[in-house]
């Protein structure tokens, strides 16, 4: 799957959210702003519900928060590089600075899992991680994550 089919440039950003809650709110607000038929609150609740099952912090400074929504027909992604790493209850107890958030239709479980696996694999590439962390702006960040 091409990441650019689910991740738009306007949903890729360098930010300083400050906390896990704030970054989940940022993700929710970004998606709702670019998809006005969606509720920021519903998105946030979906992400929080998933986090309550266990942190989506996969280690090495990476988190892949995700949730399911009834109101969408295609997956929607957000990519954030935190200027300052945040505590995210990751499996390695290290703070997180790269987040790939994914929202999928409730009925697309297999696509959801395949997309998460593909992103986890991409983010395990040390060269890509180095380039992402060196990115200076949103445009550069988008270019690296979608290459």
TrEMBL record:
<dbReference type="InterPro" id="IPR002178">
    <property type="entry name" value="PTS_EIIA_type-2_dom"/>
</dbReference>
<protein>
    <submittedName>
        <fullName>PTS IIA-like nitrogen regulatory protein PtsN</fullName>
    </submittedName>
</protein>
<dbReference type="InterPro" id="IPR006320">
    <property type="entry name" value="PTS_Nitro_regul"/>
</dbReference>
<dbReference type="InterPro" id="IPR016152">
    <property type="entry name" value="PTrfase/Anion_transptr"/>
</dbReference>
<dbReference type="InterPro" id="IPR051541">
    <property type="entry name" value="PTS_SugarTrans_NitroReg"/>
</dbReference>
<dbReference type="Pfam" id="PF00359">
    <property type="entry name" value="PTS_EIIA_2"/>
</dbReference>
<feature type="domain" description="PTS EIIA type-2">
    <location>
        <begin position="1"/>
        <end position="147"/>
    </location>
</feature>
């Amino acid at each position: 799957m091409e990441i650019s089919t689910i991740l738009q440039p306007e949903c890729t950003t360098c930010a300083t959210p400050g906390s896990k809650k704030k970054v989940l709110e940022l993700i929710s607000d970004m998606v709702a702003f670019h998809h006005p038929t969606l509720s920021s609150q519903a998105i946030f609740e979906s992400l929080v519900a998933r986090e309550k099952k266990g942190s989506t912090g996969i280690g090495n400074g990476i988190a892949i928060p995700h949730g399911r929504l009834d109101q969408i027909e295609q997956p929607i992604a957000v990519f954030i590089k935190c200027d300052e790493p945040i505590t995210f209850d990751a499996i390695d107890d290290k703070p997180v600075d790269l987040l790939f958030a994914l929202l999928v239709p409730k009925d697309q479980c297999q696509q959801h899992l395949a997309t998460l696996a593909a992103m986890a694999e991409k983010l395990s590439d040390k060269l890509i991680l180095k380039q992402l962390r060196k990115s200076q702006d949103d445009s550069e960040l988008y270019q690296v994550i979608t290459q």
